[in-house]
Amino acid sequence: MIVLHRLARLLVVLVVVTFLSFVLLNLLPGDPVTQILGLSATEESRARLRQELGLDQPLLVRYLDWLGGLAGGDFGTSYITRMPVGAELAERLPVTLELLVAAQIVALGLAVPVGVAAARRAGRALDQALTALSFALLSTPVFVLGVLLILLFAVTWRVVPATGWTSLSVDLGWNLTSVVLPAVTLGCGQFAVYARLLRTDLIATLQEDYITLARARGLSPRRILWRHALRPSAITLITAVGLNLGALIGGTVIIETLFGLPGVGRLIVDSIFSRDYLTVQGGVVLISVGYVVVNFAVDLVYAAVDPRIRRA
Amino acid sequence: MAGSGTAHLRPDDEVLLRVEDLVVEFPAGRGRTVRAVSGVSFDLARGETLGIVGESGCGKSSAARALVQLPPPRSGSVRLDGLELTALRGEALRRTRRRLQMIFQDPISSLNPRRRVRDIVGEGPRVWQLPGDRVDEVLEAVGLDPATAAERRPHEFSGGQCQRISIARALILDPEVVICDEPVSALDVSVQAQILGLLEDLKDRYRLTLVFIAHDLAVVKNVSDRILVMYLGKVCELAPSADLISRPAHPYTRALIASIPGGGGLDLPPADTLISGEPPSPVDPPSGCRFRTRCPRAAPRCATEEPHIRQVGDDHWLACHFPVKE
Amino acid sequence: MRRRLGFGVWLAAGWIGLVLLAALLADFLPFARYDETLAGPPQSGPSAAHPFGTDGLGRDVLSRVVYGARVSLGVGLGAVLLGLGVGAPLGILAGYRRRATDAVIMAVNDVAQAFPALVFALAVVAFAGANLRNVLIVLGVLGVPSWVRLIRGATLSFAEREFVLAARVLGTRDRRILWREILPNVAVPAASYAFIGMAVVVVAEGSLAFLGLSVQAPTPTWGGLINEGRTLMETAPHVVLAPSVVMFLTVLSFNLVGDRLRALTDVREIGLEPVRAPAALPLPTPTHPVRDTLLQVEELRTHFVTPRGVVKAVDGVSFTLDRGRTLAIVGESGSGKSMLIRSVLGLLPGTSIRGGHVYLSGDDLTAYGPAEMRPVLGRRLGTVFQDPMTALNPVRTIGTQVMEPLRVHLRMSRRQARAEAVELLASVGIPDPVRMLRRYPHQLSGGMRQRVTIAMALSCRPDVLFADEPTTALDVTIQAQVLRLLHRLRAERDMAVVLVSHDLSVVAQWADEVIVMYAGKVVERGPAAEVFARPRMPYTESLLQAAPRLTDPVHHRLRVIPGRPPDLAHLPAGCAFHARCPYARERCELEPPPLSEDHHHPYACWYPRPGTTAEQDVRTTGADSRGR
After folding, report:
1. Is the pLDDT of residue C283 over 70?
2. Is residue C493 a contact partner of residue C461, using CB atoms and an 8 Å limit?
3. How far apart are CA C568 and CA C565, in angstroms?
4. Pairing of strands C326-330, C513-518
5. C395 Cβ contact list (under 8 Å, min separation 6)
6. Which residues of B are less than 8 Å from C552 in CB distance?
């Protein structure tokens, strides 16, 4: 019941997002016809192309047309490359997804032990050092961090290639070496966010009455920390992961450009430069769907972790 | 208990505040409704103190807020000196606010942490553009030294002192009725005695009419002329304070008294024979008499028929099918 | 309220000021203009003439970084102001008006958040033209949803506070309430977010510039500089490092200032200042004969080292307790009664120092380390706290929580523990205990939760049960049930109970012995009936007369204790109560009275009450009717 309700809302959000982005992209200056034919084309040939591409139709008609296609899984055909947008996106998506998952593994793999360690010794030297580190990472833009990491690992020490991509299906080892640097770059900032969040939340949880009472029942600090404190605190973390994952789908643009990865982000940037509206539009849809779906999933996980949500 | 009815109301010209069939409800999510107050009536004569007592969830605080129309009740009438407050909106309602003031339970949260005491207390006169500066006078009346207190901020005061500031803020407008919503329940015993004494003094000095709401029967008895006992949004019993404590007729009132260690000097049976279990949810209150699920005297009739308020003694009113007769 | 911001913040603010000033005064600074080629040899490293070196075209990198700051900070400032200007009014409106207004604003906000912000910024800037104005507008508009959410949240948290309701009761108009009551409180989180927002926008502008979609060359921007520098990474790393470091420091500074501002208002962070190790000043631990009793506490002290001085929360408390007896500890807030039992249990925060001895059946618990203490806490001492709402872990089932001590301390199998848990829950009067095992705390009423916490405390059959205000948070009818339950269990299990309470009538009815505490010290001790009937210490007497009773006549004047309890960090000389005591004489101000030698009913007072006041009525009948 609640799931259905949420699904309906999700659909509405998607329709609104696509409509707005469609309108906005089309209202902006710039014309694909000019892009294809160049400035010197005759008015006649321009009109012909316009008709051919369906650009002579009113905006709303074009949108509904496009939306109808989308419902059937058709993202339309690029005005510029004359390739189906859906196929193009599908080809690029695995790269972006792998990058995202790898980055989250890096971020969470580091953040949980670090956040827990800092919270246990709140205020002590270790906590202060970890807080300072996460603050520094939080304040480093990904492109700065990426450049620095490339400078160190690819240029100075030559451990991994600076740019380029080997698909997972071609060679696992090469795939991993090509994903490790981008994933670390993307994951570091996330790590800082998660670690700080977990630390603050854990410290608050550790001050709760039920934790003091657990101590009063003679339970060991380790047991109290992992069995009693971590789960309530994990809820905040899960929300953050969901929100971030959604936001990150767009954030991979920079990483993919920097490391020369053939992902969705890179595709969108290229399409923006070539005024390839439908491809940009397809990318926007993909990212919005990703964001909305991830958050929907987070809500479900949330209910699994926190019994208070289940009934409310 | 579960009583409704208006038999206990006095003629209009004898009372300052008259509340009739007050109903307060608010949404509880998923289409359900919390029935906080369901048809409560009472009145106050000028200069009188009415105590309202009941446990959490009985609707006493919701009733208090409905009196000042924040938010207005779902239905029912609140008449101040003949003026129907529930019919007023906007500016007309705002104009009546001066006459009806309120004191809250949490002394810390009821004062804006970023304002000075002088501004907090002086806010009323500024809003009403009243001439003269009475802040010092009122602060003195509540036992604070204006010279040291007025320029400080709330966090520099103790809970008891904050409550004095709240009282000063209410008094400076010369209200006719002051509604005190659990004004001492967050305070220590010694401070509680200070505030109760202060309220009595101010009541005489400023000729106030008080509605005093609390969960502690002993505190309510100390300040009230009459006491209204509420349970789950309904009226149980209404009587002059001494009479209510010495001759409780409603099963719930008796259970309440028996639950207090010492039992009020009455020779009541142990509390666990007078009341059992826990209060039901106000989202889904029992049919008929709302107290029947915990009442040892409950009979089939209590489930089907709601008792109406009727007189059982001199100004002693009751809503029960099977009251205790002594 | 006032808290130190810390050295780092001033450093950060200084850096922000420096960058801002440099950006403003760039035209007057003594270096080559940003676009002057061959100002020095190309790709030369840092030198006196060019502190940050030169780039591939021989342009001065410092100059380029400083001019780049104009774009970064300008866009940052503009976008934050735009976000604040649009987002704050909407957020306040949504938070204050609520209902339909809120629903509409938040629905729009939800949609806005589903927009891929960066992609959108790229598209808009690419199509509409990469110039300062467009970048500023796009980043500003994209920041609006976050502003709305933040301001709405802050407004909501204050709009529900009683002082806003109080203002409405006064008849204050909405506009004035917004300005006077809500805005000043929302200002601090908004200021904090303005700094964090600056950091976000500076990074976002950098990202755009990095992709070549911000202000176009030749105007330098930080992101653009880093992008250009990339190509020279191998030969002249300083070209990319200089703008990177400046940008990092700037973003870090904005984040730092924003974070500290937020910490000012965030209650959750309070008390997390770096803990300075307390000046290890061991408290006196005089030796005492160890008596043959269940619980013996000797000269127990708990002090906290705080910036205001040493707070003597518990100051030399001694008592003994036998099996089957209930000892009540009474006092007002701040008297040290709760701290006393935490001190006995060894559950004190890290900043405290403890002195004295606690013997449980002759074993000195103060000599035990944490690991040795655990089995004692688990099996021999049980604890119940005041608020049943916070005493249970919200995300674990009742079953898991009740079974845990059984499994850990008694090493029971899951099946055994389950059976025992069902029995325990039944013994504390929980209907249908088998079903209860699978439920979560939030599904239970307060009274039921308190029964569960009692069941947990009793699970390993403790010798002593410590109950800290166990019924204060409960309704009076439920309170009677829970107290009766505790009393019954004490008899059934032959344990001792330490009952902490501020409610004298509760103590009178349920305790055998009573300790009255004031300012961390015991001021009177004795059999409950006697202490309440014939109090000797004036504080006890006034406390009894300050509490309203049902038997008092209507409008009865309660005894008022003037003043307030003393500051535990600065206790007065002499008797701590003398300033509030109507019987105090000169000696009370000079010499602290010791606890009298009378073992039956000792008190700490130079001029005790005769002990014949007419307090017999309720108090004694209460004590006599105990156990019904």
Report:
1. no
2. yes
3. 9
4. parallel
5. A231, A232, A235, A305, A306, A307, A308, C440
6. 218, 221-222
CB A311 within 8 A of CB A44: no
| DSSP-assigned letters across all residues of C245-269 | HHHHHHHHHHHHHHHHHHHHH-GGG
Chosen for mutation from A139, A148, A308 (greatest number of chain C CBs closer than 10 Å) is: A139
Q: Copy the structure tokens of residue A302.
A: 């949330």
Assigned token pair, C526:
């004795």
Look up residue A254 and give its two tokens: 């920079």
Q: Give tens-digit pLDDT for C108-144.
A: 887 787 777 777 788 888 888 888 888 899 899 888 9
Q: Closest Cα partner for B175 from B64, B97, B111, B104?
A: B97
Domain at C52-264: CATH code: 1.10.3720.10
pLDDT for C626? 36
**SS3 category, C414:** helix
Q: How many CA atoms lie within 13 A of B246 on its CB side?
A: 9
Subunit contact B265:C618, Cβ cutoff 8 A: yes
Domain extent at residue A165: 92-311
Identity of residue C100? A
Contacts of A304 by beta carbon, 8 Å cutoff, 6+ apart: none
Does residue C504 sit at the B interface (CB-CB below 8 Å)?
A: yes
Question: pLDDT per residue over B3-26, tens digit each?
Answer: 677 888 888 888 999 999 999 998
Domain count of the fold of chain A: 2
DSSP type of residue B286? P
pLDDT digits (tens, 9 = 90+) for C448-502: 999 999 999 999 999 999 999 888 888 888 888 889 999 999 999 999 999 999 8
C touches which chains (3+ CB pairs under 8 A)? Answer: A, B
For each of the domains in chain B, give its residue range(s) and CATH number, in order of start.
15-99+177-183+209-319 (3.40.50.300)
Q: Which of residues 422-451 of C touch B (CB under 8 A)?
A: 445, 447-448
Total number of residues shown for chain B: 326
A213 part of contact set with chain C, CB < 8 Å: yes
**Which letter, b or e, does each residue of A273-296 get, where b requires 16 or more Cβ atoms within 10 Å of its Cβ?**
ebbbbbbbbbbbbbbbbbbbebbe
Asked whether residue A233 falls in the same domain as residue A180, the answer is yes
Nearest residue in C to B159, CA atom = C564
- Say which CATH number the domain at A115 has: 1.10.3720.10
* DSSP output for C466-482: EEESTTTTS-HHHHHHH
CA distance C132 to C393: 53
The residue type at A293? V
Residues in chain C with CB shorter than 8 Å from the CB of A257 are 210-211
Least Cα separation, residue C1 to chain A (angstroms): 19
With a CB cutoff of 8 Å and minimum separation 6, the contacts of B321 are: B289, B299, B301, B302, B305, B307
B288: Cβ contacts below 8 Å, ≥ 6 apart: B2, B301, B302, B303, B304, B305, B306
Please spell the DSSP secondary structure of B72-110, one letter per residue: PPSEEEEEETTEEGGG--HHHHHHHGGGEEEE-S-TTTT
- Which tokens in the block code for residue B224? 């009230």
Q: How far apart are CA B5 and CA B39, in angstroms?
A: 8
DSSP A214-271: HHHTT--HHHIIIIIIHHHHHHHHHHHHHHHHHHHHHHHHHHHHHHT--SHHHHHHHH
Delimit the domains of chain C by residue range: 52-264
Locate A195 and state its tokens.
């670690």
Q: Both A143 and A221 in a single domain? A: yes
Which residues on chain B are in Cβ contact (under 8 Å) with C154? none
The pLDDT assigned to C499 comes to: 94
Nearest to A218 among C199, C378, C387 (CB): C378
